[in-house]
Design a protein that fits this description.
The complex is a heterotrimer of chains A (about 775), B (about 160) and C (about 280). By secondary structure, chain B is of the alpha+beta class. Chain B is about 35% helix and about 15% strand. In chain C, helix 10 runs antiparallel to helix 11 and helix 11 packs antiparallel against helix 12. Chain C is globular, with a radius of gyration of 19 Å. The chains are: A alpha+beta (about 775), B alpha+beta (about 160), C alpha+beta (about 280). Chains A and B meet through helix 1 and helix 18 of A and helix 2, helix 3, helix 4 and helix 5 of B.
Chain lengths: ~775, ~160, ~280
């Protein structure tokens, strides 16, 4: 399909590439500092659960260069959620800027603003806090135990499901009768898995700089994925009208969901509002690990029931999610554990989903690439392998028999959405069979599966799993784009969409250039400035290509119509017989006019006008991308070490607007997933103190830790998407855990149900 | 203390705290391409070349770099070229996502290519073991370094 | 969070001058060699740095008798690229150094600074296995085994470590090193270095040294004796590895349990000895 395009489907250089490879100051902390800058530093709780009985900041205030000390006594008490979601946020209002209670090691206690970071840190050390120690709740089981300490005992939190029982959020959904369906099934398998705490670890930590502009408006320059939500949430929290705030996102150094939190914008903002001075706050790497957000650890039980012929008959999923000290994204991540996984096997008439997100005195869960699907696919896809085994079927064959296809639907689409009911959807493109076929071929499935080839103490195995995600949140997300034409036939593309390193500025420009028949260089992108660009919900839920991309396509089409109308006058032709080709408007005969001529005429000639349009897009569907994931492992039975030797990921993401960038999304997601599967792990001591707050102890994959990785973009076209595209960014991260677990079983005959698959854990599993 | 550093063929005289790291000193003096990703020697985003060898600038006191030639990404390309081959191929191969790790990655790669002008993919991975990237999975970055090695060794043969 | 506030930075040009800064053992004074440790983990009470780059040697000298002298300021990269070290004891030094940290650290970390720091290490077990000696300056020079340097806590006393000496190697000698960690760039959860000298047809000296247990290094002397008595046949290696497991003390840590570490002692010792036997046979 891509061959019918000129700019789309080409691996163009990133539009922001020059600045990045030459090291220009493009990230928040690189930008020129405003004179009089205050540095903001944060004091965090050393205790997992305690009440602040007194706080004495007098000594701190005497430190030279201190401008302001903030704590619960002089900051707004309004409850809010740090979740950077649309309004109204489907997360409980259980947070305060500073509370009288601390709920995890790393929770906020006080902040200091000073002329230098050194002064600010010295002052932090002089703040005296008395705590009344409370019993900490350090696991899901402790949280749900009778008589457990109540973590959110405040009386002003909103939308907490059952605070007395430490349940932050609750979700049920069903179709048919799963219990009856399981009873009717010929073969039933049950799997319970536990996944662990992990951190996003973008290489650029959270960083925010604030100042008042010439008119006294608050400007927030932030490494955020959600500039418009930041404007709204900070406005409400600090009592500033939306029109009094401008949020700018420059280049940002990765997000992966952790910057979908309004995590620190409030602090420098309040400092600037109180003092009138510019302020900046940068999380240290340690704070990024301790006082940031994480992937929700979960315990999930999946039960599958099938008929003898292999058809799935019943599917039940029960989830306990640990949302940590606050409920941000707790409900929606919980929902997505089911909503992004259960529709994949739509042949089952009986489906049930039930889940609770519980509070603990551990770090706060948040949005993290994969968003619950990562946790859900582990039990689902390992249960599928077990079921296929019980049925005597090959794992590929079973999946091909049962997965959803083009033209089909699933009752779960309606029953379970983003923290509420979903919307009805029919699959409009699905090339999963082709993904499975190509992936199996490349990994050597039929030659290697079940062979258990040995070399010394190492035994080889291959495993696979299949996946779907979504493309934005239907009927909730909105993206908008503005395009205006310049006098040389170039265009400005203004989008609220937020490029967090993904390359969305580039692919959105490619879509506009394609419609407008100009080279990519003729589209100048400005993104993510709430004063300048139209609204967009931001970068999350795999939405940008599909949602913002459609807005760009629509805006470009409207601009094209305006261009053709002007050209029709110039060429004395009917607009209907005109076409845009290679920067010219061409009539059926030999007559044509260049875009530059149209541009200069409309700005300076007769019938002057600004050619331009703004378009919005709200998706009615969320077309899932599909992925077939394969790997070969070698398990050292003496040490338990699992080496992933080769990894093949074949994806149906619709049209790849920029193939290299699309592959890069998949490769990066798989890499992060492999780290999560094998070694990335936040570990806590018996009092809830983190033991892995740096990259020396929390290991993320380096180049030596990666297998040979092959990605395949399968030819596909999504009819409802821009140029046939759907999403690509998240899906890959879900794959490594079940793919590797299935491969370990293929090699050793042992099922792993707890992550990460560290050598010691595998060794223990192998030794019963 | 007063120190004099040679950075990208320029002389920088600066008054610094004796405990200031090279990373802090470079960033404070406008060399913001040198990133502060962890300040603990674990991530490689602060890499610079010291007399041509890649080094974590967060693990050096600025005073230690006196008398050495410091190169940051701003000083890598020749005066008459837009990009060093490593910068060009990093874009060509699609090795850049957020770009935060890229200056350190490219500088470390240039150290490698000085030691070993035609490295294998495994050699490249081994040399970049201290340069973390959270976005890419390294595939296209290693592609880029292979491509740059080919360009640079061609240039060497052509004289 | 709280970093030391450094007030003084000295660059002595002689060892004597350097010694004058540190001889009284003041906890506020630290010797700075590579910088990779002090930049991030100097105690908050340190206020004076003594940069020894100008007074300590950074060269490697292969002596005619086969011993090798390494100046304390030599970086790990210079050691890794050195031919004499590359062929010493079947190449165990580059084998260990090529996986040590990463190039950004190896290019600046020095052998002297690393040893004086005395923390968990891949280097120390190898040097212990090679019977390496260190030269220490405390007003005058003393040469001692690296084992004594740590056993007698010389590394904690005021001193300047000026050089490392690898002794004359016997003709038929080989060593091997193995480390076990979560990722390629990670602290080891265990490491093992073994060296075997053949004296005619018999095992002359045997060294089996485990590190990161999480102690810095321990010798498995029972296993060493076993190998001296029974040679390097497969069954003898297995028996020696079991002995090593019994005599090497391991501790629980967040990255590995004591039980698992002990298991690794046996597996890695067996593998390491097997590799040494292979290298000896290949000579």
């Amino acid at each position: 399909m891509a061959d019918k395009f000129n700019v789309v489907g080409i691996s163009a250089h990133r539009v922001d590439g020059r600045g990045l490879v030459t090291g220009k100051p493009v990230f928040v902390d690189d930008l020129p500092k405003h004179p009089g800058l205050l540095h903001v530093a944060l004091l965090t709780s050393p205790h997992a659960h305690a009440r602040i009985t007194s706080i004495d900041t007098r000594a701190a205030e005497q430190v030279e260069g201190i401008a302001l000390v903030l704590d619960h006594r002089n900051t707004p008490h309004r409850r809010y959620t740090t979740a950077g979601q649309g309004y109204p946020e489907p997360s409980p209002y259980d947070s305060r800027m500073f509370d009288t209670k601390v709920r995890w090691v790393g929770d906020r206690v006080a902040a200091v603003a000073a002329d230098t970071l050194e002064s600010a840190e010295r002052a932090l050390g002089l703040i005296e806090v008395d705590y009344e120690m409370l019993d900490p709740v350090l696991s899901i089981d402790e949280a749900l135990a009778d008589g457990a300490p109540v973590i959110h005992d405040e009386d002003d939190a909103l939308d907490v499901w059952d605070a007395e029982r430490n349940i932050s959020a609750h979700m049920v959904a069903s179709a048919g009768d799963a219990e009856k369906g399981l009873a009717e099934s010929d073969v039933v398998v049950e799997v319970t898995t536990e996944t662990h705490y992990a951190q996003h670890a973008p290489l650029e930590p959270h960083v925010v700089s604030t100042f008042l502009d010439e008119q006294g408006r608050l400007v927030i320059v932030s490494s955020t994925q959600v500039p418009f939500h930041v404007r709204r949430i900070i406005g409400r929290l600090l009592d500033v009208p939306v029109h009094g705030i401008r949020v700018i996102k420059p280049r940002i150094g990765g997000g992966f969901g952790v910057k979908q939190e309004v995590l620190i914008e409030d602090l420098p903002s309040l400092v600037t509002l109180r003092t009138g001075r510019p302020a900046q706050m940068v999380y240290t790497r340690e704070q990024e690990f301790i006082s940031s957000r994480t992937r929700h650890p979960m315990r999930i039980r999946v039960r599958l029931g099938a008929k003898d012929d292999g058809t799935l008959h019943a599917l039940a999923m029960d989830v306990l999610s640990n949302t940590g000290a606050y409920g941000t994204h707790g409900l929606t991540v919980l929902s997505n554990v089911g909503s992004k996984t259960l529709p994949l096997y739509n042949k089952a008439p009986h489906v049930s989903f039930r889940g609770d997100a519980v509070y603990t005195n551990l770090p706060v869960g948040g949005a993290y690439r994969g968003y619950g699907a990562t946790q859900g696919y582990f039990p689902l896809e390992t249960a599928v392998d077990r079921l296929a085994g019980e049925l005597g079927m090959d794992a590929l064959e079973w999946r091909s028999l049962n997965h959803i296809r083009e033209g089909e639907t699933s009752p779960i689409f309606v029953a379970l959405g983003e923290g509420r009911e979903g919307v009805e959807q029919t699959i409009t493109s699905c090339e999963l069979d082709e993904c499975i076929r190509l992936g199996a071929e490349r990994i050597g499935w039929s030659e290697k599966r079940g062979k258990r080839e040995r070399e010394g103490s190492k035994v080889h195995g291959v495993g696979m799993s299949v996946h779907m995600q979504g493309s934005g949140i239907p009927m909730i997300d909105m993206g908008a784009a503005t395009i205006k034409m310049n006098d040389d036939g170039s265009f400005n593309l203004l989008v609220g969409a937020t490029d967090l390193g993904t390359g969305s500025d580039t692919i959105l420009a490619q879509i506009a250039a394609e419609v407008l028949a100009v080279p990519l260089e003729s589209v100048i992108v400005t993104s993510s400035d709430t004063d300048i660009t139209p609204f967009d919900v931001g970068a999350y839920a795999s939405s940008t290509t599909y949602v913002s991309g459609m807005a760009v396509q629509k805006a470009a089409e409207e601009v094209r119509e305006q261009i053709l109308e002007v050209a029709a006058l110039m060429l004395e032709a009917d607009p209907g017989e005109l076409e845009l080709v290679d920067e010219r408007v061409v009539a059926g005969d030999d007559r044509s006019v260049s875009l530059a001529n149209i541009g200069i005429r409309t700005l300076y000639g007769v019938e002057q006008q600004q050619i331009g349009a703004t378009a919005s897009f709200v998706p009615e569907l969320s077309p899932p991308p599909f992925l077939a994931s394969f790997c070969e492992v070698a398990v050292d039975e003496s040490t338990g070490r699992v080496d992933v030797l080769r990894y093949v990921a074949a994806i149906d993401c619709g049209t790849a607007i920029n193939p290299k960038l699309a592959e890069g999304q998949l490769e990066g997601a798989i890499a992060n997933g492999i780290g999560f599967a094998l070694f990335e792990e936040m570990i806590f001591d018996a009092e809830g103190h983190p033991k892995t707050p740096d990259f020396a102890r929390y290991k993320i994959p380096g180049p030596m830790d990666m297998p040979e990785l092959e990605t395949i973009l399968v030819d596909s076209y999504e009819p409802t998407g821009p140029m046939g595209a759907k999403s690509v960014s998240e899906i890959g991260i879900n794959a490594p855990i079940p793919t590797i677990a299935n491969a370990i079983y293929d090699a050793t005959g042992v099922w792993l149900t707890e992550t990460p698959f560290t050598p010691e854990r595998v060794w223990r599993a192998l030794n019963g | 203390m007063r120190i004099t550093l040679r950075i990208n063929d320029n002389e920088l005289r600066a008054e610094i705290a004796p405990g200031a790291t090279l990373l802090e000193t470079l960033r404070a003096n406008g060399y913001t391409s040198v990133k502060d990703g962890c300040a603990n020697g674990d991530c490689g985003t602060c890499a610079v070349l010291l007399d041509g060898r890649a080094a974590a600038s967060c693990l050096l006191f600025a005073a230690q770099a006196e008398g050495k030639e410091i190169t940051t990404i701003e000083g890598l390309a020749g005066a008459d070229e837009a990009y060093h081959p490593l910068q060009q191929t990093m874009l060509d191969a699609g090795g850049v996502q957020c770009g935060y790790c890229i200056p350190g990655m490219i500088l470390t790669a240039s150290d490698l290519l000085a030691l070993n002008p035609s490295p294998t993919r495994a050699d490249i991975a081994e040399y970049l073991v201290g340069n973390l990237c959270r976005c890419t999975g390294y595939v296209k970055q290693i592609d880029a370094i292979e491509m740059a090695a080919a360009i640079l060794s061609e240039g060497a043969i052509d004289g | 969070m709280s970093r030391p506030s450094i007030a003084e930075y000295h660059r002595p040009s002689t060892v004597e001058e350097a010694w004058s800064h540190v001889s009284d053992g003041s906890p506020s004074v630290r010797i700075l060699s590579g910088g990779t440790d002090l930049t991030i983990s100097a105690p908050p009470d340190v206020d004076t740095l003594v940069d020894v780059a100008r007074c300590l040697d950074h060269s490697i000298e292969a002596r005619r008798d086969g011993s090798i002298r390494i100046g304390a300021m030599t970086t790990f990269t210079d050691m890794l690229l050195n031919d004499a070290l590359g062929s010493y004891a079947a190449g165990v030094m580059p084998e260990m150094l090529s996986d040590l940290g990463n190039p950004l650290l190896r290019n600046i970390s020095t052998i002297g600074g690393h040893l004086a720091r005395g923390k968990l290490s891949d280097v120390v077990p190898v040097l212990v296995a090679l019977d390496a000696e260190v030269v220490v300056y405390q007003g005058d020079e003393k040469q001692m085994t690296i084992q004594r340097y740590y056993d007698e806590s010389v590394h904690r006393s005021p001193h300047l470590l000026t050089e490392v000496v690898l002794p004359v190697a016997v003709k038929r000698s080989a060593a091997a090193f193995l480390r076990f960690a979560r990722t390629a760039f990670d602290f080891p959860m265990l490491n093992v270095c073994c060296r075997i000298d053949f004296d005619g047809h018999m095992v002359g000296a045997a060294r089996i040294v485990c590190g990161a247990t999480p102690l810095r290094s321990q010798r498995a002397s029972g296993a060493e004796s076993w190998i001296r008595e029974h040679g390097l046949e497969a069954r003898a290696i297995e028996a020696a590895a079991r002995r090593a497991r019994e005599e090497i003390h391991t501790r629980d840590g967040w990255v590995a349990s004591a039980e698992y570490r002990s298991h690794l002692v046996e597996v890695l010792t067996s593998r390491c000895l097997t590799e040494v036997a292979r290298r000896l046979a290949a000579r």
